[in-house]
Amino acid sequence: MEILNFEFTASHSPDKSALVGCVGSGDLEVLMEPSHSGKTTIQVMTSVDGSEQRWKNLFDRIFLESNTPAVHIDIHDFGATPGVVRLRLEQAFEEVQRG
C-alpha cells in the first residue's frame, strides 16, 4: 500500500463536493472537495506499489492541459487502469461544477 501526494495550480473553487466510484476489484473511489488554496491537491492511496510515475504522468496530462477548479482529491485505488481513473475524475469534476 502506497500513499502518494500531488499538487497543481487551479482556478476557482467550486461550491460542491462529490463522491464517485467504489473501491473494489479493478476500480477506485474519488472524493473531491472544494479548496480555497488556489490549488488542486491530490492524495492517492493505492494497493499497487511502485506506481508513482504512472500516477504523475496521468495527472500531468489531465491537470496541465486544462483549467481545473481548486479542489482536494482523495483517491482510494484498488488497481484501476488509467482510463478508469480519468473517467472517475471527469465524473467528479462534472458533479462539483454542476449548478
From TrEMBL:
<keyword id="KW-0597">Phosphoprotein</keyword>
<dbReference type="InterPro" id="IPR023439">
    <property type="entry name" value="Mal_deCO2ase/Cit_lyase_ACP"/>
</dbReference>
<comment type="function">
    <text>Subunit of malonate decarboxylase, it is an acyl carrier protein to which acetyl and malonyl thioester residues are bound via a 2'-(5''-phosphoribosyl)-3'-dephospho-CoA prosthetic group and turn over during the catalytic mechanism.</text>
</comment>
<dbReference type="Pfam" id="PF06857">
    <property type="entry name" value="ACP"/>
</dbReference>
<dbReference type="InterPro" id="IPR009662">
    <property type="entry name" value="Malonate_deCO2ase_dsu"/>
</dbReference>
<keyword id="KW-0963">Cytoplasm</keyword>
<dbReference type="GO" id="GO:0000036">
    <property type="term" value="F:acyl carrier activity"/>
</dbReference>
<dbReference type="GO" id="GO:0005737">
    <property type="term" value="C:cytoplasm"/>
</dbReference>
<feature type="modified residue" description="O-(phosphoribosyl dephospho-coenzyme A)serine">
    <location>
        <position position="25"/>
    </location>
</feature>
<protein>
    <recommendedName>
        <fullName>Malonate decarboxylase acyl carrier protein</fullName>
    </recommendedName>
</protein>
<comment type="similarity">
    <text>Belongs to the MdcC family.</text>
</comment>
